[in-house]
Design a protein that fits this description.
It is a single chain. This protein is mainly beta. The protein has one helix and seven strands. It has one helix spanning about 65-75, and strands at about 10-20, 25, 30-45, 50-65, 80-90, 100-110, 135. It has a five-stranded mixed barrel. The longest helix has 10 residues, at about 65-75.
Length: about 150
């Protein structure tokens, strides 16, 4: 019998709202990194027929230019689409306790709020231009907000 080989796939797309402003810091070699949490909402009907809302909170980490743009344009309550991969991060607290978390390492982030949307630049006509999707290290396809199903 041949050996079964599974493809490697680690890709997530999530839409949610920031629970607080992004935190931007620099690593010891000067690389920018931003961390924030998004709330993913789910509405479902319980066994009694009552509608209920449930939130799942997911950490997001963005690096380099993407991190700086997140700090510049995102704030608590803003809606975003995050594309990236799941990663496990381990660390040790100051009192020696080991901790770990699973978070999204963002490759691309789209700002979904139309009102109060940041402007990356202004055109010659003086009209504000819409920001392009913000990409991380890996290339990704570009998509307008009108193409999104939500």
């Amino acid at each position: 019998m041949s050996e079964l080989r599974l493809a490697d796939l680690n890709r997530v797309f999530m839409v949610g709202r920031l629970t607080k402003d992004p935190e931007l810091r620099q690593t010891t070699n000067g690389t920018s990194v931003a961390n924030f949490t998004i709330a993913l909402n789910r509405r479902y009907k319980s066994a009694t027929g009552e509608w209920k809302d449930e939130a799942t909170y997911v950490g997001v980490v963005a690096w380099q230019k993407l991190a700086e743009l997140c700090k510049q344009y995102l704030a608590k309550g803003r809606a975003v689409l995050v594309e990236g991969k799941l990663q496990n991060r381990n660390w040790e607290t100051e009192d020696g306790q080991k901790r770990s978390t699973i978070e999204i390492r963002a490759d691309r982030i789209e700002f979904l709020d139309r009102e109060g949307r940041p402007s990356i630049g202004t055109g010659a006509s003086g009209q504000e231009s819409s920001p392009e999707p913000v990409h991380g290290e890996e290339p990704a396809f570009s998509k307008s907000d009108d193409d999104l199903p939500f």
